[in-house]
Amino acid sequence: MRSLPEVSSRRGNSRGTSRWIADAVRLLALLSAVVGAFSLGFPQTFGLAIMALGLLFSRMFRLPAPVDAVFCTTIFVATWSGMLGLYRTVPSWDLVVHFATIGAVSAALYLVVAGWNVTREPGSGTPARAVVILTFSLGMTVAVLWEFGEWIAHRYFTDVIIVGYDDSMGDMAVGGVGAALAGFVLAYRGGAAGETAGHGPSGEPAAEQVAP
């Protein structure tokens, strides 16, 4: 049986690494936007700027470090996949990105609304099914808005973005699966994922208790 200091140290190291990853991705996103302003066209630069601003979301709401890291990484990959044309050149890459990104964003949003007391955080007596349903609903909302945003970008800015009925339905379907999976992770790992927004300057609670 591990001692309390040992367990706390390992968890602290894990959170520290996750936070470092998230901040590194945010820095890369900022540098991308700055470089893009001097070397890319308006649509690409605008997309990179939106990404850089969006990655501040998880930091601003003090989400748990692991959620922060996954949130930032998936959005960074999703944005640069479009910049590099991977959605067109790599089969099914679009579906993989939608699955991962919608899952990460839906988990982050659940923790934010829990921090606002709209619902209770995972692991605090909330029925698992309620966590899954709300996370799934948030994810599907984001998936629809994503497709709407792609249509606007395609219609008014660039035809590089792929749009179409089959593409949109597939993206939303896998996004829903990712959101549902994120809900299950939140529900059944509530003790770890339930460190909700607003618990401290780095998203960690002030103290932890470890069962013997």
Automatic annotation (TrEMBL):
<dbReference type="Pfam" id="PF09997">
    <property type="entry name" value="DUF2238"/>
</dbReference>
<feature type="transmembrane region" description="Helical">
    <location>
        <begin position="130"/>
        <end position="149"/>
    </location>
</feature>
<keyword id="KW-0812">Transmembrane</keyword>
<dbReference type="InterPro" id="IPR014509">
    <property type="entry name" value="YjdF-like"/>
</dbReference>
<feature type="transmembrane region" description="Helical">
    <location>
        <begin position="69"/>
        <end position="90"/>
    </location>
</feature>
<feature type="transmembrane region" description="Helical">
    <location>
        <begin position="96"/>
        <end position="118"/>
    </location>
</feature>
<keyword id="KW-1133">Transmembrane helix</keyword>
<protein>
    <recommendedName>
        <fullName>DUF2238 domain-containing protein</fullName>
    </recommendedName>
</protein>
<feature type="transmembrane region" description="Helical">
    <location>
        <begin position="169"/>
        <end position="188"/>
    </location>
</feature>
<feature type="transmembrane region" description="Helical">
    <location>
        <begin position="46"/>
        <end position="62"/>
    </location>
</feature>
<keyword id="KW-0472">Membrane</keyword>
